[in-house]
């Protein structure tokens, strides 16, 4: 009797397992995704739409990661807070124009690397305490402000020996329009942001002027200045060797990249032939190195929170014909 019951249970379990489809698994994963990323939707239609987009993206992730496991791709994809967005939605919400028509203007000096420089094989400015924790720009196209602030915070630490968190919202609110040509949550340029700080005589601290993720009126207060900029330095455009020298000898550098394909990045060295040099996102190069399997890379600080990529960072292919335009418009401040 007991043997018969065991056989019956075994058959039932097998039947249930056979009835669980890949679609059922994705349904369950979507429920976990909503909890982990605190997602809620306005109505049932929106919920079903986001579920289908999630499933489509999960299929893309699985196909890509099979190629990664086979050594055909250098980076892996994964579920993140953007997995319920289409590629077009991701670009519209998270990426923006960097106004590169003005990118050749507004610098005081050009960085000239010494021919005698012997650069370290790798560098990571986090190890010296020069890089603040990852921030999150939210759904505001203020990456240019986070890029400028990320570089400024690091250079202030390197030169002054003090860690300070500075206000991106100060830039979003106060550097819009003439003469800096920034557009708040609709885009801007790190070089213009740094010029604002220089001309303004400083920028407020994060604690005194907290981030809102939206355009607001300018309420900069001179009593709350956390750092100043004496000059803006540009690194030679398109020269990865010059960029490496600047990173090693001066500190983290503000750059622009084409981040159109960062949507589902989870880890590894991002070496993607489909990446263009049409810049749409500001980030900070905080170091470089060489992966034993995937070769040279840039260590890049992003502004999408710690739950994206490699705890908020991405390693991007280095010495691969200026991939994603990373060396087109590098700048940094003198403090």
Automatic annotation (TrEMBL):
Name the EC number(s). Answer: 3.4.22.15
Origin, by domain of life? Answer: Eukaryota
Q: According to the UniProt record, what class of enzyme is this?
A: hydrolase
* Coiled coil regions, renumbered to chain: none
User: What reaction gets catalysed by this protein?
Assistant: Specificity close to that of papain. As compared to cathepsin B, cathepsin L exhibits higher activity toward protein substrates, but has little activity on Z-Arg-Arg-NHMec, and no peptidyl-dipeptidase activity
Q: Which GO terms describe its molecular function?
A: cysteine-type endopeptidase activity
Every copy of the Peptidase C1A papain C-terminal domain together lies at 119-334
The region annotated as signal peptide is 1-18
* InterPro entries attached to this UniProt entry: Papain-like_cys_pep_sf (IPR038765), Pept_asp_AS (IPR025661), Pept_cys_AS (IPR000169), Pept_his_AS (IPR025660), Peptidase_C1A (IPR013128), Peptidase_C1A_C (IPR000668), Peptidase_C1A_papain-like (IPR039417), Prot_inhib_I29 (IPR013201)
Q: Which residues form the Cathepsin propeptide inhibitor domain?
A: 30-90
Cited PROSITE patterns: THIOL_PROTEASE_ASN, THIOL_PROTEASE_CYS, THIOL_PROTEASE_HIS
By sequence similarity, the record places it as follows: Belongs to the peptidase C1 family.
Quaternary structure, per UniProt, is:
Dimer of a heavy and a light chain linked by disulfide bonds.
**Protein name as it appears in the record:** cathepsin L
Q: Which organism is it from?
A: Drosophila albomicans
